[in-house]
Structure formats: C-alpha cells, structure tokens
Design a protein that fits this description.
CATH topology: Ribosomal Protein S5, domain 2
Order of helices and strands: HEEEHHEH
Number of helices: 4
Largest sheet: 4 strands, mixed
Strand content: 15-25%
Shape: globular
Strand order of the largest sheet: 1-2-4-3
Helix content: 40-55%
Number of domains: 1
Amino acid sequence: MPLSNSYGREEKLKSRKQIDLLFAKGKSVNQFPVKLIYLEVPDEMDFPVKAGVIAPSRLFKKAVQRNRVKRLLREAYRTEKAPLIEYAQNQNRKLILFLLFVDRQIPSYALVKEKISMAIPRLIKELEKTKITAANENS
RNA sequence: CUACAGGCCCGAACUAUCGUUUCGCGCAAGCGGAAAGGAAAGUCUGGACAGCACAGAGCAACUCACCGGUGAAGAGCCGGGAGGCGUGUAAGCGCCUACAGAAAGUGCCACAGAAAAUAACCGUCCCGGUUUCGGGAUAAGGGUGAAAAUGUGAGGUAAGAGCUCACGAUAGGGCAGGGCAACUUGCCUUAUGGGUAAACCUUGAGUGCUGUAAUGCCAUGUAUAGGUCCGCUGAGAACUGCUCGUUCAAGGGCCAGGGUAGGCAGCAGGAGGUAAGCAGUAAUGCUUAUCCCAGAUAAAUGAUAGUUUAGAAACAGAAUCCGGCUUACGAGGCUUGUAGCUAU
C-alpha cells in the first residue's frame, strides 16, 4: 500500500460500535490543546489506522465553529500521519484513533499542525512500550 | 453634501499545489462534472409526503378576525378602506396598526381624588331652626387624575341640568348618489350613563393525532430461565386531546437480564432556476426557450502560497422538501422621507 497524503473513506472511523469501545477503554496522549484517544484492536480492518475527529459541542456552541475545528484537525492529521501509518504497517498492528480538541479558542492551523506533529511520535513511543510489556506478560 | 429612519440589491474574484463528498465514463490506473445560505438559524406558521385512526354524541383546547385580489395553503403577499403619528397654513407626502363585538354578562381601573360608574367633598339653591345645625334639590364652577359623564351659545329655573332650541361632535337606523366590497358623501331620524376584550368572554370561520430518528423492505442475532405486583367480582386493549358510549378480552405492568444498532428505499426533476414576451396598478399568472443546480450519516466544500481590490474581515454550516414569518449581520451601491448646511 503506497503512502500518500490522502485521507479517504477507508481511513475514517465510522462504526458506532468501535467508537463506543474506544471511549470506554481507550488510552490517551495529551498535547494541549489536542488530545489523542487510541486503542489497539485485534479485529481485521481494511486499513491499519482508522481515525476520526471531535470538537465538543460543550466547548463550541455553534456548528460553524465545530466544523472549523474539525477541518483543522482533519487537515493537520492528513499531513502529519505518515510516520504512524508506516509504523503500524511495519509492526502489523491495528489501531483506532480519535483526535479531540479541548480548548475553547478556535486555533490557527499552524498551531494545530505543530501540536499533532509532536503528538504522533509520542503515540508511537507509547505503542512501543505496550508491545514490550505485552511480550513480557506472554513470556 | 451630511445625519437619522424605512425599503431594495450584493454577501469577493482568479491561479497553482495537496486533499474531502458525490455523479458520469472506464476492467483498472485514471479522466471529466457538481458541491451550503440570505438567512442554511429560531422551529413560529402554511402545505406536500408518511404512519395510525376515521358508527356516533358532547366537552375541552388551539388558531384566525376591515374589504377585494393572489396563491396548493397560510398568522403570507399585493391593492384599497378606516384610524393613529410626524411634517405642512392647507393640499399632500412618509411611517405605523392582533382593525369583529364594551348596546349579552362578569371582572378590573394603581396613586391622587368627594366620587372610577346608575358620582354630592367644597360650592349654588329651597325649607325648618336661627352664631354653629338638620332635611332636600342641583353635575354650572373648583381641585385630583391616564381617564370625571357630548362642546359652544341662547332660552329656562328657587338654583341648575339635553330640560328645550340652534349650530356642532359621536354612535345606531332609514333613504338617495358613488364603489364589486370595506367604506364614503348628502339628507332625515333616534340616542348620548367612561375605559379595558395583548381580562374572562360573546359572535363568525377553521383544525383528527403524530412527525423523515415518519415509514417500507433486506440482512444479522437470540432467551426470556428469574424477581415482584395486578387480573374473568374483567386486569388490560381499541376508537390517538378528554368524557360518554361501543367493541374485544386472558393475560398484562414494573424490575433484572440477553440480542441487534449493518444496508437499501424514503432522498434530491421540484408549487425548480434563468432569460424573453404577453396580461395585470401590483402581488401574481400564462407562453416559449434553456439549464440540471449539495445529498452526507462521527456526518463532505478545506489547507497553503500568490494576484486583483481601500478592505476580505460580519452573521453564520444543508440533514425529507417547498411557501412565508421572525431574529442576527458587513463594506458598499440604489431609492423614499425628515432635519441641517451651501448655492440658485
């Protein structure tokens, strides 16, 4: 599968069941004002990483504002996701992921992009740890 | 020209790169097309559409309210009438109006005032008594108030009063002229004991209820094992606002637990848009030509850079679809009215 900057239908997290599961059991990486919620799943999926975005209506009352924040998150994820996909493919791990925005101010695109580019290496690092502990438990 | 108020128009364009949703073509790679708003908003209305209901009677609730037209319909729109406000000597012009009924009934009318509805505090007048008082008549005058019993003049009277008369005002009725009508003009006649119906209410017209998470279909999947209460002395269900009434009726309610939560249709060709012509004061209608113009479901229109421009900033994101109403808002343009200044 070639790496590209596209962010198509098969890469989006759509199943309501998986979303409920993610919020119930998922772990998180905080990189204020962006928060990643992730969960490794055993299920077979058509793409190694499925991701969605959220702008809480609690923080943004108007639909226009929520749309704006979600578009920024989506665009930043699209440009910065390459290392994560590559890692998941190489290690053959399946991941579901949500990007939350937890500030009240509508951010600039530059800020969101910077924070996500910082958060994704941290996420990979966390995944590396859980892999080691799982391996230890198994042995 | 400036300020204020009302109405209308517009709601940036283009290029490049990387992306999203969808449609068409193609085996595929890919190529090509389309992609938020004037309010998409509030969910306030009217419909379309869908489901359930539709033997009957009563009650309740809600909506509307000058006339005519328009339209699928309306709490909309257009035109007209009436009333009010502003301006003006006036004519006129502009703006506003939930504009049926107060002569069916009930209620309410703060403060002030004698009194807020069938009004005697002061005053005026008469009678009795004779320094003060008592009985009566009287709405002309006084002050209060948002509002005080139809205005002015004359007659009249003890003093007064629509008590009578003249000219008016307001309301009802009649006749005549104008108008499809609301209404209006003139004449005659009757009455004149307030306001409030965005108080209850009355009159007239109308409304079955629910709402696209409607609804239909396909797929997947199981479990009702348990607890408790009620029940043929009728639980409960249907007639979907409620009651009566009618019909059915042996299982039903609650707690706990299990399964599913995927897909298709609805769902994008419509009371559709644009242009021209015709009819009409207008709203609007008709004809012809032409266009296809979002369709998601954790939910698509974005990011970056540059150019144009005085500036790109306001309010704000489709979720079944249309017609309206209301509210929010930016820079500029057009237009109407008022005020001011300058010039003529």
